[in-house]
Design goal:
Number of domains of chain A: 2
Strand content of chain B: 15-25%
Radius of gyration of chain B: 18 Å
Helix content of chain B: 40-55%
CATH class of the largest domain in chain A: Alpha Beta
Radius of gyration of chain A: 22 Å
Strand content of chain A: 15-25%
Structural class of chain B: alpha/beta
CATH architecture of the largest domain in chain A: 2-Layer Sandwich
CATH topology of chain B: Rossmann fold
Shape of chain A: globular
Oligomer: heterodimer
Structural class of chain A: alpha+beta
Number of domains of chain B: 1
């Protein structure tokens, strides 16, 4: 049936992914409560217009975009519905950010068990993307700490799901990038901490093999394990970089835990060397966002890190360690006007050195070394379309320019092919360019059939869509 | 960052300058919506465009510009089909030349309906959309005929003069939002509309006109004469005093 009336043009907006390299026009609706969400769903159905879900817009690529669709932005559904400091259980609306969660929990000695590199994503968004953090080996993904969700199905029916009740749907909604229903409430269990500070150690490594071995050894001893790679270094230095490991302080280690739970002491001074405000960093960095500039920055970062790395331990606040991306406000704008894309591959342990080394070489050979490359250790989790596996992930940042766009999209394909051949997977939250057939080829256990069956059951009209889902799931989806 | 001409809508795409523009844009990789009354003609053009491109770049939408309630919804359908909209060209136009002593109100009004009111009915919602998005190019195909009121085609002259004024006003309303409005004033162009006017001095083909128009669109022209020499001619024609213009009987 064809639409009989136009959508109100005053809702039309140009909406971008967080990387600002992809965008689309959409009719944006921002309801403030579950009733409003249901109304938007009904409006989309009555107009026969697809609906794309958006939390805080922190997916780098096209996960929360669909040209000319209705967009349900959940940023006004941002209330913490309940917080029990005795059990560490919190109920939130989907638009609540990680920042709002930790600010509520930390003063009572709790911390979100899984956080992303920025505190700005929404609760609904990190569940839909099954987000992970630097402690993926220990804590799994964010979905493993979710005890319950209220899901508004495209039919208008609302259901409460838990890992046990409606288990299949629960495990598909988490990781299902917003294609099965709208999360209107989520219940998380926090992690007890005994200090607002972490014990951190930085180590320098001179090549990829060393980096992977160190991450692997450290994963059992340290809560958080993350590697940074100087992606400009080649030859025998390929994969050189720095590893940061961190652990929560044990009970009694922090003589004044109460003081350090105070959110006001969590943020750093906001200035470099006490002088330059962090907000000045993007304009200072902008002239350096080119290959020679970034080569220099990577070299300086590695060299300084090598000088200061070693046995020395230091303490860092949970916020400063966890949310590095937030330290420089508006950092993503330094890549304007073209923006940036990310690509994150997950490769099983036994193939990691070969495949990730090949990826670094491919970037260099294409003349597009990643401006920022981050390595993490992972484990499998129970979610249907998860990226989790027993292996390593490499996240790569690429600036997009007027001239490199087509080459960059080709490069992403080249990067992804050996990942699929090695039994690897990809992370949709960061993706903008992965060819759908490669994403689909990464699922060999019938996961996509099960996901499609759920879609047909719960969204037979195919009301919930996104550019990401259309691209990655392709004709398989339809 | 949206592609400047990635997705285009041409109203009046079944013949003449509109058809030539649609073919040229599609040839440059643009996804084009073809809008006109004649379905068979539109589909033939779309088939040819798509065959030449080796993929679907042309999409047809049957619409009569006299139906002024349709554009808001049709515009959204077109944008959804194309996956966006960056460029809208209003090229629909008819020409009526009354005989000496003939005063046909119905035909004169029809010229205004197609050439002017249809343009307003389309370009208002287009401008609203583009202004909201801070992006887009609107192109109106006017005419040098709008620069002067001639005895031979009063309603046509009026419609093109009014269209140029409307486009100027539109430009003044939306240019601060980043929207570009281009007024095209072709001189003589060989099209089905001008086929029975006899030999036209200095006439160019619709294809050449389209090539020049696209070039001027890329340069974000305000008012473009096609070809450019008509700017001088127009200036000279406008400089002729009214009493003399009357005696010339043009």
């Amino acid at each position: 049936m064809r639409r009989s009336s136009p959508l109100p043009p005053e809702h039309l907006e140009w909406v971008q992914g967080w990387g600002r390299a992809v965008g689309a026009p959409g009719y944006v609706y921002r309801p403030a409560d579950a009733r409003g969400v249901a109304d938007v769903l009904e409006l989309a159905r009555s107009h026969r217009v697809p609906l794309v879900l958006r939390g805080r817009g922190r997916s780098y690529g096209d996960a929360a975009l669909l040209p000319e669709a209705m967009m349900l932005s959940l940023d006004r559904m941002n209330k913490i519905l309940a917080w029990d400091p005795s059990s560490g259980v919190m109920d939130v609306e989907p638009g609540v950010t990680i920042e709002e969660i930790w600010r509520t929990a930390l003063p009572d000695g709790w911390w979100p068990p899984v956080v992303t590199g920025t505190a700005t994503p929404s609760a609904g968004g990190i569940l839909a993307m099954n987000a992970h953090g630097k402690n993926n080996w220990h804590r799994g993904t964010v979905g493993e700490h979710c005890e319950e969700i209220d899901l508004l199905l495209p039919s208008g029916e609302s259901r409460t799901l838990t890992p046990e009740r409606d288990s299949g749907l629960f495990h598909a909604v988490i990781s299902g990038f917003g294609q099965l229903g709208i999360i209107t409430r989520a219940r998380f269990r926090m992690m007890r901490v005994h200090s607002g500070f972490l014990d951190v150690q930085a180590l320098a490594v001179s090549n990829l093999g060393e980096m992977l071995r160190l991450l692997d050894e450290a994963k059992d001893r340290w809560e958080y394990v993350v590697g940074w790679i100087d992606a400009f270094a080649g030859g025998r230095h390929l994969g050189r970089g720095l590893v940061h490991v961190a652990r929560h302080l044990d009970e009694g280690e922090d003589p004044a835990p109460g003081r350090h739970f105070d959110p006001s002491v969590q943020r750093g001074p906001g200035r470099i060397a006490g002088v330059v405000p962090m907000s000045m960093i993007p304009p200072l960095l902008k002239p350096l966002t080119n290959r020679p500039g970034l080569r220099m920055i990577n070299l300086v970062k590695y060299s300084l890190g090598r000088l200061t790395a070693g046995e020395r331990h230091f303490q860092q606040s949970l916020v400063e360690f966890s949310f590095l991306l937030d330290a420089i406000p508006g950092w993503e704008r330094i890549y304007e006007p073209g923006g940036l894309i990310q690509h994150q591959s997950f490769v099983p342990v036994r193939h990691a050195e070969r495949v990730l080394g090949r990826q670094l070489e491919l970037c260099q050979r294409a003349g597009m070394p990643s401006f920022l490359a981050v390595l993490k250790r992972h484990r499998p989790d129970p979610f249907l379309l998860t990226h989790g596996l027993d292996g390593f992930s490499l996240a790569l940042d690429f600036p997009v320019t007027r001239t490199n766009r087509a080459r960059l999209w080709r490069l992403v394909r080249e990067l992804a092919e050996p990942v699929v051949a090695a039994g690897g997977r990809f992370y949709p939250a960061k993706d903008a360019a992965l060819p759908g057939e490669l994403f689909r080829a990464a699922f060999t256990g019938g996961e996509l059939d099960r996901f499609t069956a759920l879609k047909r059951t719960y969204d037979p009209e195919h009301l919930l869509r996104s550019s990401l889902a259309d691209r990655l799931l392709g004709s398989f989806w339809e | 960052m949206a592609d400047r001409f990635g997705h285009a809508l041409v109203i009046g795409a079944s013949s003449g300058i509109g058809e030539a523009l649609a073919r040229r844009l599609a040839g440059e990789g643009t996804r084009v919506a073809l809008v006109a009354r004649r379905q068979e003609r539109l589909e033939k053009i779309a088939r040819e465009i798509n065959a030449a491109a080796g993929e679907q770049r042309a999409f047809t939408f049957v619409h009569d510009v006299l139906n002024r309630d349709e554009p808001p919804l049709l515009l959204q359908r077109i944008a959804a089909t194309l996956g966006g909209l960056d460029l809208v060209i209003y090229a629909a136009g008819i020409l009526y030349r009354p005989e000496d002593g003939e005063f046909n109100t119905e035909k004169d009004l029809e010229v205004l309906e197609v050439n002017l009111l249809g343009a307003i009915a389309w370009l208002n919602p287009v401008a609203e959309r583009f202004a909201a998005l801070g992006h887009g190019t609107i192109v109106g195909i006017g005419s040098i005929a709008g620069d002067r009121g001639r005895a031979g085609a009063p309603a046509y002259n009026t419609s093109k003069a009014a269209l140029a004024t409307y486009l100027e006003a539109l430009r003044n309303r939306v240019s601060r939002t980043g929207v570009v409005v281009v007024t095209i004033k072709p001189g003589f162009v060989k099209t089905p509309m001008t086929a029975d006017l006899g030999k036209l001095p200095g006439a160019v083909s619709a294809d050449r006109a389209a090539r020049l128009i696209v070039k001027r669109m890329h340069r974000r022209a305000v008012t473009a004469y096609i070809p450019e020499r008509w700017r001088l001619i127009s200036w000279a024609v406008r400089a002729v005093p009214s009493w003399l213009f009357r005696r010339l009987g043009v």
